[in-house]
Design brief:
Helices cover 2% and strands 46% of the residues. The chain is mostly beta strands. It has a single domain (4-290), classed as Beta-galactosidase, Chain A, domain 5 (Distorted Sandwich), CATH 2.70.98. The strands form six sheets. The chain has a nine-stranded antiparallel sheet with strand order 7-8-9-10-24-20-19-14-17, with no helix packed on it. Strands 4, 12, 13, 18, 21 and 22 form a six-stranded antiparallel sheet that branches. Strands 1-2-3 form a three-stranded antiparallel sheet, with no helix packed on it. Strand 21 and strand 22 form a beta hairpin. The longest helix has 6 residues, at 99-104. The termini are far apart. It comes from Muricoccus nepalensis. This is Aldose 1-epimerase family protein. GO terms for molecular function: carbohydrate binding; isomerase activity.
């Protein structure tokens, strides 16, 4: 039986699983489901990416002259978290290092996830702590997949992502080759919005390193999803190449490395180094809206 917890109120309800601390449902007061329901096109809902966003060359983590096998997006999404709290308005879960994690990632760590619903808003706060005696290198990312079309929309047409407060004529994006950062692509915006169509993701994810925005609006006919984040400095947009009924909106701290890089993990471009005894919090939130 799946170990899950449902929480929220009459305006918004969410479900989180102990498996990966993964969000699996976001329903509004009218019963509309805003989260992708892990269909055949992609079997996940909203995995937590830790201690890696993207992948390493050959899936090999190099540190201190040794090699460890660490696969794409890390292991947190596939591990059982421990419940620390469960209530009507939210829940808290924890993952700590053990023998299995240290075989892939030779560092002590504590990863706490706290989910909460308040005033029609769902928030997720991730806190990474370093109980070790040396700096802790890590990346962290959110990977929630939202319904495309949005609830109430008749089709996938007429959807866009808008970046409020940014006067951008285009996005300067990085594309992927073998899961690693490759060429830069300029993606035009229309009135500050990115019109969505399935061909947009034929070349895989749109990666926006060092993105200046901290908020976006995913909009469709009759519905919109506002999203914001703190602590994360990068952004990814993704849907399954070839077409699928979801759009991933992904705040990240760190990205997959560029082609040609193959060094020590602690020196990976964009890595976060957390000093011994320190903690760092990262937060993202969403607010669904119906017309």
């Amino acid at each position: 039986m799946t170990d899950t917890h449902r929480f929220g109120d009459s305006r918004l309800a969410a479900t989180v699983s102990a498996a990966g601390a993964e969000l699996s449902s976001v329903r509004d007061g009218a019963g509309g489901e805003w989260l992708w329901q892990a269909g055949p096109a992609w079997p996940r809902h909203a995995p937590v990416l830790f201690p890696l966003v993207g992948r390493l060359p050959g899936d090999v983590l190099r540190h201190g002259g040794r090699e460890h096998r660490l696969t794409q997006h890390g292991f947190a999404r596939d591990r059982a978290f421990t419940w620390r709290a469960r209530g009507e308005a939210g829940c808290a879960l924890r993952l700590v290092d053990d023998e299995a994690t240290r075989a892939a990632y030779p560092f002590p760590f504590v990863l706490d996830l706290e989910w909460a619903v308040a005033d029609g808003t769902l928030s997720c706060t991730a806190t990474v702590s370093n109980p070790g005696a040396a700096p802790l290198p890590f990346s962290l990312g959110a990977h929630p997949a939202f319904a495309w079309p949005l609830p109430g929309a008749a089709s996938a047409e007429g959807h866009a992502v808008r970046f409020p407060g940014l006067d951008l004529p285009a996005l300067s994006a990085r594309r992927l080759s073998g899961g690693l950062l490759d060429a830069t692509e300029t993606i035009p915006l229309a009135g500050g919005s990115l019109p969505l169509h399935q061909g947009l993701f034929d070349a895989d994810a749109i990666v926006l390193p060092d993105f200046s925005g901290r908020r976006l609006r995913y909009e469709g006919p009759g519905a919109a999803l506002e999203m914001g984040w703190e602590g994360y400095g990068d952004l990814g947009l993704w849907s399954k190449p070839g077409g699928a009924a979801f759009l991933c909106l992904e705040p990240w701290s760190g990205t997959t490395p560029p082609l040609g890089w193959d060094g020590d993990f602690a020196g990976k471009p964009g890595i976060t180094l957390l000093e011994p005894g320190a903690s760092r919090a990262f937060r993202w939130w969403i607010r669904p809206e119906r017309a």
